[in-house]
Structures are given as structure tokens and as C-alpha cells.
Amino acid sequence: MNNVWYYVNDVVNGPRLPWVGLGSRQCNDLPLMVNCAGAYNQLLKHHDCNPTGRLDYYLIYLVSGEVEVYNGDESIIVKEGSIIVFPPNKGYKHKNDHSPISYFWVHFTGSDVPNILNRYGISLFPAINMANGENRISNRFQKLFDGFAKNDKFRDYDLSSLLDRILVEIARSISPEQSEKTLFSKSIRYINEFYSKPIKITDLARMENVSMTTYNLHFKRQMGMSPTQYILALRMHSAKELLESSKLPIREISAMCGYNDFNFFTKVFKKHTNKSPTEYRKG
Questions:
Q1: What does the mean pLDDT of the chain come to?
Q2: What is the structure's pLDDT at 134?
């Protein structure tokens, strides 16, 4: 496997060394959009660290070797066949100091990514997805790389379709042990549709027929964050989009995102973005 990097913005195409953040974007023009992708093969030490994370999702498929992946101060060793998906704006760090490794990677965004990953049963970090020994994921990545060469107005659609095929192969190859885990598709669909309304975690747990403790535990394993954090992320994402793309009064945006208390909305938004809604809109 050769080291290659491909970017949709044409800053880099081919075997070049990228820098942190290149190609990072958050875009909702399509349900699923590819930002960049590549293959990595390293015989010596490997370190990849981005403390603040990226704007997009980051998927790694470990073909051979093992990598130490950090979740805060804790770390876990993941082996070949592992698929890791880091969510947006989550810092990541993985390294290997003692053995050769090879992996494929892709950064992606889109308006429907949470639903797509949930539909295919692909969990976000800190959960680790495990593929079985026989799969066609590597072949699908090679086809994705070929898609970058077709630099025309249809390329985003082509890359979206090719990435979807990768995710399908991952879903097919995930071990039976993982597929038996609790997947809260009903409540997640509910959150995605009604995040601007008052939502009680007890009601979500009842929807999935589990206790609130079990629901919180499995939800975090599945989505990489608590239900409360997930609802907050959806509300803040919606608020930022409305501030960027509309001229609606900020008080109206506050209510549309589930905050009837405008002062509380301003406080939460500033804590989430380090800017007030007014400052964010001007920026």
C-alpha cells in the first residue's frame, strides 16, 4: 500500500504530505459528502494528533498492525480490522511506536451523516467497530480514490455514492457481536426530528424499552456522547446554520432551536462557540 492523499478542493492530489486541517469543511449540500481520503503505510513510528478535532467526520480502517487511540487521558489498543469514526469537533490522538501499520482513511460531512451511520450500525468513537476477516472495504477505498480523478460537476455526487458503498461494506463486515448491541434508532430518529422541542431522557429510554441508566450508557457507546450532549449539538448546529444563512431575528432563532429563554440561549451558545450569537453572525 502506498501513501496517498486526495482532496476535493484540489489543493493536494496524490502522494503528498498534508498538514492538519487541510480539506476540513462542514457542508450540507448533500446528505453525504467526501472532503478528502487516502491510504497510510508506515514502517516506523506513527503519531497523529489534533487536539481540537476537525469540522468533519474522520473514519479510519486499520488494515494491518495496531494503534493506540486516546480518549482523554485513557487509551485503548485497536488491532487490524478495526474501524474508528471520530465525530466533528472532537479532538483525536492515535499513535504507534513499535510496529508497522497500514490504514485507509476518509474525512466526510453532509446533512444526514448521523442518520446514515445509525442506519448502517456504525458507531462513533469511543466505540470501536470490528470488521470480520473477509470483506471488500479495501477495494471500495481504491474505487473512491479513482473517483477523485473525475474532476467535473458530478464529482461530489460520485464520491458520495462511492463512500456510501464503503459504509455498506463496513456494515456488512461488522462482527455479529457488535450487530447485537443495542441500537437506539427509534429514539435517535425522534431526537433528530424534534430536537427543538422539550425532550426528556426518561421518555427516550421508555421509547427503547430500557431503563434510563442503560439508555444513557448504550447511547454514549453508540453515538460517542450523552443524549443531552447530542441534543445540544443538534441545536447549536441548527442555530449556527440559521445565523449564517438567514436574516431572522436572533430571538426567533433562539425559539426555533428550542430555547424560549433568550438569555439562556445566548449563554449556552457563547459557551459552545466562544462567541455571542451576534458576534458569530458578524463573523
A1: 84
A2: 61
* Residue 35 dihedral angles phi and psi, to the nearest 5°: -95, -45
Q: Are 107 and 33 in contact (CB under 8 A)?
A: no
List of residues 6+ apart from 36 with CB closer than 8 A = 5, 6, 7, 8, 12, 18, 22, 23, 106, 107
Between CA 260 and CA 127 the distance in angstroms is 35
Alpha-carbon distance of 32 to 18, in angstroms, equals: 23
Cis peptide preceding 198, ω within 30 of 0? no
Collapsing DSSP to helix, strand or coil, 272 comes out as: helix
- With a CB cutoff of 8 Å and minimum separation 6, the contacts of 242 are 248, 253, 256, 257
Distance CA(224)–CA(128), nearest Å, equals 10
Terminal Cα distance for the chain, rounded: 43
Answer whether 110's CB lies under 8 Å from 28's CB: yes
Contacts of residues 248-252 at CB distance under 8 Å and 24 or more positions apart, as own/partner, are: 250/277, 250/278, 250/281
**What does the DSSP assignment read for 45-84?**
-EEEEETT--SSEEEEEEEESEEEEEETTEEEEEETTEEE
Q: How far apart are CA 54 and CA 124, in angstroms?
A: 14
User: Is residue 255 helix, strand or coil?
Assistant: helix
Residues in the chain with pLDDT values less than 70:
1, 9-23, 44, 133-134, 175-183
Residue pair 199/191 in contact (Cβ under 8 Å)? The answer is yes
44 to 60, 95, 102: CA distances (angstroms): 19, 11, 11
Asked if residues 56 and 109 have their Cβ atoms less than 8 Å apart, the reply is: yes
